[in-house]
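Protein in question passed on here:
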Amino acid sequence: MSKTSQIKVLNTKGEEVKDFVVPASLLAQNIKPELVHQVVVGYAANRRAGTAHTKTRAEVSGGGKKPWR
């Protein structure tokens, strides 16, 4: 039989939403902040829309000087 611990889940206002039950052995592990940071940054990067692009020669407004010969 494994022991469990309850973690309070809070919303952005700091109000308790629900309790989350996790194994106590999970909380006894060493936490590596660098790894947590990598996961959070990767998760946020994957949520990006990624719509950036550059204009082609045809899309650029004219500047008066011929851009190529």
